[in-house]
Amino acid sequence: MNRTLRGLYVITEDRPPADRPVRTGVEAALLGGARIVQYRDKSEDHARRLEEAGALKRLCSDHGALLLINDDIGLAVAVAADGVHLGRDDPEMASARARLPAHSLIGVTCYNQFERAQQAAAKGADYIAFGSFHPSPTKPHAVHAGADLLRRAQRELALPTVAIGGISPENGAALVRTGADMLAVISAVFAAPDITAAARAFTHCFNAVEET
Asked: Residue 1: inside a domain, yes or no?
């Protein structure tokens, strides 16, 4: 499997429309070029979450993409996901690493705090995420992150970086040029009338940078 951490990183919706199950939306995004999928569901419906995560793992494997689980280490192990993504209030990285299979990926949200990124790198994170770079409809009160974080991470940390928060095809290429290895999006892809086309527009952000 190609485990390169670069490209469009989609995060599943909390409440997808009833007529479009989470699997359908993710499949459309993968067809548009998404390379990493984060399954994020904070509900208590464990049976449904297990079923959905298992279906997404099979789907990602078919497309050569990575599946990460938001904060739920047990679910990640149960469906043989490629790893987990941890936030401020999620399990400690050492605990996650001990419970996950070898070579699993662990990503860490660092908000706008470079010191948190340094700590994550020192503890063995596989990638770090900064945001919000632009106003986000998903988290309108998120802290603002500046592009200088991406530049500094590129200089000082040997880790792939994710940019998140209000990312669009129009502003994404600039973030990739600044140092973002992945662009993380939710509504910009899943709320689009044509999910595959929306995902494809984000993949052009990386193509445009690579061609310059």
From this structure: no
